[in-house]
Amino acid sequence: MKLSNRTEYGLRALVTLAERSGGAPMSTRQIAEIEGIPEPFLDQIMVLLRRAGIVKSVRGVNGGFLLAQSPDRVSVGEVVRVLEGSLLLIGCVDEENGDMWCERTPICHTRKVWVKLNEGITKALGSLTLAEVVETEEPTSQAQAGKGGWGGSYH
């Protein structure tokens, strides 16, 4: 399973907002500069997060985005579902439509592996909150802290 840049950037933007929880709204430009994210792409991501109720927008000269709720109430799993869609590793683990993906679903022995793995990932992401990510995030360089030309990711 490889998560998209949309999810990586969205989570990084939310961590930036969580670090400033209770503060003034942040514009996408500010977040993009801090995190080294292309601003037009971040604009699209923030629309999805706003529609899902994860962030709220504030209009005006000093407007921008805020978390819609406390960072300890927003799970990484919720963010991933909003930005990626389904968390399914392989189609056959879909409880409602698994048979449509593979005719062997009812008799497949390896399906148990995928179901267990999918459940573990879903549980892990669902139990991790933005507050916990902020507490444990330890950038190892100035670039990773958003201070300069960051071209990779740290997860």
Automatic annotation (TrEMBL):
One Gene Ontology molecular-function label: DNA-binding transcription factor activity
Keyword field: DNA-binding
Protein's UniProt keywords contain DNA-binding: yes
Annotated stretches, region: Disordered: 136-155
CC per GO annotation: cytosol
Coiled coil: none
A Pfam family hit: Rrf2
Comp. bias intervals (Gly residues): 146-155
Superkingdom, taxonomy of origin: Bacteria
Gene3D superfamilies: Winged helix-like DNA-binding domain superfamily/Winged helix DNA-binding domain
UniProt keyword DNA-binding present: yes
NCBIfam families, sorted: rrf2_super (TIGR00738)
Protein name according to UniProt: Transcriptional regulator, BadM/Rrf2 family
Biological source species: Kyrpidia tusciae (strain DSM 2912 / NBRC 15312 / T2)
